[in-house]
Design brief:
The structure holds two protein chains of two kinds. Chain A is of the alpha+beta class. Chain A has two domains: 78 residues; 99 residues, Threonyl-tRNA Synthetase, Chain A, domain 2 (2-Layer Sandwich). Chain A has three helices and seven strands, in the order ααβββαββββ. In chain A, strands 1, 2, 3, 4, 5 and 7 form a six-stranded antiparallel β-sheet that branches. The longest helix of chain A has 75 residues. Chain B is an alpha+beta fold. In chain B, 53% of the residues lie in helices and 17% in strands. Chain B has a four-stranded antiparallel β-sheet with strand order 1-2-6-3. A four-stranded antiparallel β-sheet of chain B has the order 11-12-13-14, covered by helices on one side. Chain B is extended, with a radius of gyration of 43 Å. The chains are: A alpha+beta, B alpha+beta. At the A-B interface, α1, α2, β1, β2 and β6 of A face α1, β2, α3, β3 and β7 of B. β6 of chain A pairs antiparallel with β7 of chain B.
Chain lengths: 209, 474
């Protein structure tokens, strides 16, 4: 006898999905959905919110940028002005008052009229400035008479001068000169060199500031 | 698939699920990396924001510093000449020549000016040659050093002109040859960088005025007041007596020394007498005798000193003469004059009648001439000697003088008031008006408690200020 199954193909017992397969497919669907959902949460949730936060900070920063640039320019101006002010102060400080020096030197040499201690004169004064070495004052001089102690006295008095702290003085030496047209004819000539200590150097690139 | 066995189907489902899960894991892992990257960027931005915030907070302080420095710089550079003022610099030398009497023989610029476009402070040097005495040169030096613009003398050379065959003299002093290097700097403001524009600059500057002034004082340019010759010897001239002088008429050094010693002795005696005179234990009779003696000796000295001072030609003795004769003598005279005026004051502390009358006449003259400060100054200088009691015969005169002083003070206060006359409307039939400091006042209106508009005319307005009628012209 021929048995004919008239049920549609999917309803036929032999072709129906077994319950295990359906259960497995169901479980697979849940697991897959969960994992895709997790990805979705991370991608569209965490990442997006992190990007939004970043965009927010970038916005704030760009809004501050104008003021930051302004502050930078202010600082640049401040440094520039401070350097220029410093240069002018350095220029002003670098000056030596030669009228004061000469006044003090004349007082020392005149010695309040006491000619017994020393009576000196100079044939000239040459002042030469050197920014590295300091200023040099060269004064070839003479003291009246033959007494060597007078040269020592003059050098001693120079050591007590108000400008003494700023100078290195040449050591005493002498040569006897005779001028019969003068009274007394004898005098001791000596070279005198006063070396001023170099001034504190103004800030570099004076001209460029 | 329907033909697949059950086992095959289960494997396929498992594999598919695993694939999807792995894909999702990979996606999450990748996304987590992106999130970390974004977070790192966020943290970096946070730090940048914090740094920017800190900078922004510094803006007010930086603005203050910039304003102070900018104002200071503007003031500081005033000590340096600009290019135009270099012509004035040459004029300065001419002025100083005239003031000191030195003879300028040459002025040459020492160095070329570098490219101004690059440098802000350009040094400028001049070599200046001159002839003059040591004292003239020192005065010149001092004038240069005290000049309003910064000028420095870097080098100089004095060659003694004393004792040579071609010796020139001005008075007693030999003329020397001097070479000087004068240095200054010009300030090239154009080379400065871009200036930041600060909002409300003028207002901020006014607020910072005190600090600006304080910092301004940091720039100290040292000055010195040269002491002049004061009997001192020229250290560039040989002080020994020359052959010509030895044969001269004025006498030897010994004679000069004796003369000096005689004067020094007389002055020592005078000083002793003045000391005794000041001693409170000296009796009135002794004081009278001492004062008489001092004046007699001073009189004797006065008759001889002018001729004797010419005898002192030996230069080292000249300083002694100055320090041991001239200066002490001046001091003794000053002390005697002070004693005399103290005595006068002791007798009558108030101004004599004739002097008060003269004061009133002079003050009236000053007021008429509009010299209000002079009138006030005259009164103030003797105010303490016009406080006599009302019983004194000079009291009325003192009151008159006081009234003039009040007038002068009132007029000075009125002059100092900020009254801007901007226009007048003269109404012949009624009250005229004046537009003053932007407001209209009519005759009889009070501008302030002590200031009233009295009369308005076409050319002038009459005010009453503290009871005194004063006029302001248009």
């Amino acid at each position: 006898m021929i048995r004919i199954n008239l049920l549609p193909a999917e309803m036929r017992r032999g072709n129906r999905l077994p319950a295990r397969v359906i259960a497995a497919a169901f479980l697979a669907a849940i697991v897959s959905s969960a994992s895709v959902g997790w990805f979705g949460l991370v991608y569209f949730g965490d990442l997006t919110s992190a990007e939004e936060r970043l965009a927010d900070y970038e916005g704030r920063l760009s809004s501050m940028q104008k003021q930051v640039v302004y502050q930078g320019e202010l600082e640049k101006n401040k440094k520039d002005y401070a350097a220029r002010v410093q240069t002018i102060q350095d220029i002003a400080k670098s000056r030596r008052l030669w009228s004061k020096f000469c006044d003090e030197l004349i007082d020392i040499v005149n010695n309040n009229g006491d000619t017994d201690r020393h009576l000196a004169w100079f044939s000239g004064i040459a002042v030469k400035a050197d920014p590295k070495k300091g200023t040099t004052v060269t004064m070839p001089g003479s003291v009246q008479g033959e007494e060597k102690s007078r040269i020592a006295n003059l050098h001693e008095d120079l050591e007590g001068a108000p400008f003494a702290a700023e100078i290195d003085r040449s050591d005493p030496s002498f040569k006897l000169d005779i001028d019969k047209k003068r009274k007394p004819a004898e005098s001791l000539s000596f070279p005198l060199v006063l070396q001023f200590k170099p001034p504190a150097q103004p800030a570099k690139g004076k001209g460029k500031k | 698939m329907s033909s697949w066995s059950q086992k095959k189907q289960l494997v396929a489902i498992g594999a598919g699920t695993l694939l999807v899960c792995l894909g999702s894991f990979a996606g999450v892992f990748y996304t987590q990396g992106l999130i970390d990257e974004v977070q790192t960027q966020t943290e970096s931005k946070q730090q940048e924001i914090a740094a920017a915030d800190a900078k922004i907070k510094q803006i007010p302080a930086s603005e203050d510093d910039v304003i102070i420095l900018r104002e200071n710089l503007d003031e500081y550079v005033k000590i340096l000449p600009d290019s135009r003022e270099l012509i004035a610099f040459v004029r300065m030398i001419d002025d100083f020549e005239r003031q000191t009497g030195i003879q300028g023989t040459g002025l040459q610029p020492k160095n070329k000016r570098p490219d101004k476009g690059q440098q802000r402070f350009v040094p400028i040097e001049y070599n200046y040659e001159m002839k003059g005495t040591l004292w003239q040169f020192l005065k010149f030096l001092n004038l240069v050093e005290n000049y309003e613009r910064f000028v420095s003398i870097t080098d100089f050379q004095i060659t003694s002109g004393a004792g040579g065959r071609t010796e020139q003299r001005i008075g007693d002093d030999a003329v020397h040859t001097v070479k000087v290097t004068l240095q200054t700097y010009t300030y090239n403001g154009k080379a400065a960088g871009k200036e930041v524009k600060i909002a409300n600059y003028d207002k901020r500057r006014n607020e910072l005025r005190e600090e600006i002034w304080k910092r301004m004082n940091d720039l100290k340019i040292e000055h010195y007041d040269y002491r002049e010759k004061q009997g001192r010897r020229d250290i560039l001239a040989d002080p020994r007596i020359s052959g010509d002088q030895l044969e001269g008429e004025k006498g030897s050094i010994e004679v000069q020394k004796q003369l000096l010693d005689r004067y020094v002795g007389q002055i020592t005696n005078l000083q002793d007498m003045v000391q005794k005179l000041k001693n409170p234990e000296t009796t009135l009779f002794e004081q009278y005798g001492l004062e008489k003696s001092v004046r007699e000796v001073l009189g004797e000295i006065d008759t001889t000193i002018d001729s004797d001072v010419k005898v002192i030609t030996y230069s080292p003795l000249k300083l002694k003469w100055s320090t041991q004769v001239t200066i002490p003598l001046d001091e003794i005279r000053a002390q005697m004059n002070a004693t005399a005026s103290t005595e006068r004051a002791k007798k009558d502390p108030f101004l004599p009648k004739a002097e008060i009358e003269q004061l009133i006449a002079e003050m009236a003259g000053d007021l008429k001439a509009g010299q209000l400060e002079d009138a006030k100054g005259r009164y103030d200088s003797v105010a303490s000697r016009l406080t006599m009691p009302s019983t004194d015969a000079r009291y009325e005169l003192a009151v008159k003088a006081k009234a003039l002083q009040v007038k002068a003070s009132t007029a000075l206060d009125f002059r100092g008031m900020d009254l801007k006359l901007e226009g007048v409307v003269v109404n012949r039939g009624g009250r005229s008006g004046v537009l003053l400091n932007g407001e209209v006042y009519e005759e009889g209106d009070y501008i302030a408690d002590d200031l009233l508009v009295k009369l308005v005319e076409e050319e002038q307005v009459w005010f009453v200020f503290r009871g005194l009628t004063l006029v302001r012209t248009m």
